Every structure is written in structure tokens, then in C-alpha cells.
């Protein structure tokens, strides 16, 4: 049964957000998308900080926004919690007083609000921090307190606005695990805005991908991230994506290139995408001969360390189709050395990317 339902339109001078999302009770939806796609605008509408130009927002049995009917419940009466990138704790209050602030505003007596605050501080592994002020907390500690504050008001909907983005590499994994435990144990319904695919995989049941104010992909997390249908979803999932039209044996790009692959669904003659992992791409300094495979000449744009591998990122040279830009291959350092025919491999070098037909999956776009 749908617990959260929002279909809204927000118009700005050069931008329009026009989206519909829905969540079941206890479900978490991750919203992904490039900067400027409309993610923060959507959060603002759900939180009651922005009034949409058209549409309706329902939470449980309550209508929070209904533009035609003139309904707009203010932010503090929505039952919606928000955990942002920055903790935004009140600097003059202790951690416990920060967490107790929400219940106190809701009319809870001081002793009961303090009990609630201590409970949630313990839930987020911050019980010993209750007496400290924000200036005495690390970034990770402050974010734990902010999470306790968001949950202390028992929100019907929890909005998570890139809650790990401001944390260092040591604090983020612990906070991610904490969010998974606390949000899941509490059965909290949530909407998560993130740029990190790991956040979506760990925390979200569903994923929506926003681009230019519209949802271009929506579905179960693993399906969207393993079978992406948009360039952004492919990039965040670490996959290569080539758009075109499905044809027998693969896909034909707009510039006429045939990409051979395995069709996961029918629909020949319809828009489709070819998806394959960077690890499946072999790289050569000269055009390879031999077994049947997809071969493409590319211009090297960058070399990026990826643990024990090196990612070679292609860029679109003059005259190349735009989909070439961003294609990637993961190779070993030894392979990079072998590609450096003149002793160095630097951006601007011409290379050949090759991928076997069996490594390419064709999906409807």
C-alpha cells in the first residue's frame, strides 16, 4: 500500500521539476542525479520548505500539499524529519538538548523529552556525547547527534540529503552502517538524496534517477544499478553505456555503428542501450585482429587509479559521437606500461577499446 505519494511541478526561470514518486511504509527511495537535476527541489517540496506550482503530496492519511485546494501544511507540522549534509546543530545547546529540542517543540514535557533524547543518542552510539556542545564534536559525532535529533520526533518520513557527503573516509562507512541499522530497525520510511552508489545499495529499496527535472529511471535498486538506462545511472554504477536502437544481434548507434551484444529483452527497432563493465574492455595501441568483438578507436582523456587497477577514461575527439565521452576500461598497471609504446601514456593518446559480444547486454532505453 502506498504510504507516501507526491506528484508535483515546480517552475523556475530556466528549470522545471515535474516528478511523481511513491513509497510504501518502511521503504527507502534513493534519488540520484547530476547537479541541477532537481533533487534538492524535490526534498524542499516534501519538507514543506517550497510550495510547488502544481500537484499534491500525501503522507499516510494526511494531505500535506494540494495546490488546487490551497492546502499547504507548514514544515513543523508535517511529521517529516531532515538529515542534511551538515549537522546544523544549535551551537549553544548540548547534544542532548539538541535532540530534545524537537520533542519539546511538540509539547513534550522536559523530563520526557530528555528521556527521548538519551534513548536516541544511545541508539546512534552517542550516549556519552550528551553533555558536549557541537564545537566539541567531530564531524562524524555531530552527524550522529543530528540523526538522533531527526529521529527523536518520530518522523513519518525521513529525508536524507547526502548525509555522508561531508564526512571523512573514516567516518562515512560507520555512519552508513549506522543509518542502515537505525533506519531499518525503526521501520522508517525515507527518501535519500545521494551521489554515492554504495549509499543506494546499502540503504535503499528503490532508486529514482533524475535528469533535467524529470525521472528517467525508477525501479528496484539492484535492477537500476545493474541494468542502467541513462548515462548518469551507468556512470554512478561504474558501467559503460552506449545509446541507440535495438537491431538483430545488438544495437545501432545514431552515427551508424553496430554494437554487437546479447539482447535481454525484445523490442527491435526501439530505443535501447548497450551496457558493459569497464573490466570487460581490452585496450590496444593498434587495431586488434582476431576473434569477433566490438572495436572502437578512442582518444584517452584521463588515467585514474582504482585500487590495484587503472581506469582509462575516453574522451570524444572532434568528429566523434558524444556517447564516446566517458567510456572506460579498467586495466592493470602492467597493461598501461605495455600500451606506452613511446615510454609514456598520457591524455591525448589514440587507443583501441575492444569488448566481446558476450560481455555486452542490450536493454530497452
TrEMBL record:
Keyword line: ATP-binding, Molybdenum, Nucleotide-binding, Transport
Keyword Magnesium attached: no
InterPro entries xref list: AAA+_ATPase, ABC_SmlMolc_Importer, ABC_transporter-like_ATP-bd, ABC_transporter-like_CS, Mo/tungstate-bd_C_term_dom, Mop_domain, P-loop_NTPase, Transp-assoc_OB_typ1
Top-rank taxon: Bacteria
Domain (Mop): residue spans on this chain: 289-364
GO molecular function: ATP binding
Domain ABC transporter as annotated: residue spans: 1-237
Annotated protein name in UniProt: ATP-binding cassette domain-containing protein
Amino acid at each position: 500500500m502506498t504510504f507516501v505519494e507526491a506528484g508535483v511541478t515546480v517552475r523556475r526561470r530556466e528549470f522545471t521539476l515535474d516528478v511523481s514518486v511513491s513509497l510504501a511504509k518502511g521503504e527507502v527511495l534513493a534519488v540520484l542525479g547530476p547537479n541541477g537535476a532537481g533533487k534538492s527541489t524535490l526534498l524542499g517540496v516534501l519538507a514543506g520548505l517550497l510550495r510547488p506550482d502544481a500537484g499534491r503530496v500525501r503522507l499516510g492519511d494526511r494531505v500535506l500539499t494540494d495546490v488546487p485546494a490551497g492546502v499547504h501544511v507548514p514544515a513543523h507540522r508535517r511529521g517529516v524529519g531532515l538529515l542534511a549534509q551538515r549537522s546544523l546543530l544549535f551551537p549553544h545547546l548540548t547534544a542532548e538538548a539538541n535532540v530534545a529540542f524537537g520533542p519539546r517543540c511538540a509539547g513534550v514535557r522536559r523530563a520526557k523529552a530528555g528521556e527521548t533524547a538519551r534513548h536516541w543518542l544511545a541508539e546512534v552510539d552517542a550516549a556519552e556525547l550528551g553533555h558536549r556542545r557541537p564545537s566539541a564534536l567531530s564531524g562524524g559525532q555531530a552527524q550522529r547527534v543530528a540523526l538522533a535529533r531527526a529521529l527523536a520526533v518520530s518522523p513519518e518520513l525521513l529525508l536524507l540529503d547526502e548525509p555522508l557527503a561531508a564526512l571523512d573516509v573514516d567516518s562515512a562507512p560507520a555512519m552508513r552502517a549506522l543509518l542502515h541499522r537505525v533506519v531499518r530497525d525503526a521501520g522508517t520510511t525515507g527518501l535519500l538524496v545521494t551521489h554515492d552508489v554504495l549509499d543506494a545499495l546499502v540503504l535503499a529499496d528503490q532508486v529514482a534517477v533524475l535528469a533535467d527535472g524529470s525521472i528517467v529511471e525508477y525501479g528496484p535498486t539492484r535492477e537500476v544499478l545493474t541494468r542502467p538506462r541513462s548515462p548518469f545511472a551507468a556512470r554512478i554504477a561504474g558501467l559503460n553505456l552506449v545509446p541507440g536502437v535495438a537491431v538483430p544481434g545488438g544495437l545501432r548507434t545514431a552515427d551508424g555503428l553496430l554494437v554487437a551484444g546479447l539482447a535481454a529483452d525484445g523490442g527491435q527497432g526501439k530505443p535501447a542501450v548497450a551496457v558493459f563493465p569497464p573490466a570487460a574492455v581490452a585496450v590496444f595501441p593498434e587495431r586488434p585482429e582476431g576473434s569477433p568483438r566490438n572495436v572502437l578507436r578512442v582518444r584517452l582523456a584521463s588515467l585514474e587509479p582504482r585500487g590495484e587497477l587503472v581506469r582509462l577514461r575516453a574522451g570524444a575527439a572532434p568528429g566523434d559521437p558524444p556517447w564516446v565521452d566517458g567510456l572506460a576500461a579498467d586495466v592493470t598497471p602492467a597493461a598501461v606500461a605495455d600500451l606506452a609504446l613511446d615510454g609514456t601514456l598520457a591524455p591525448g593518446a589514440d587507443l583501441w577499446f575492444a569488448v566481446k559480444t558476450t560481455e555486452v547486454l542490450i536493454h530497452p532505453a
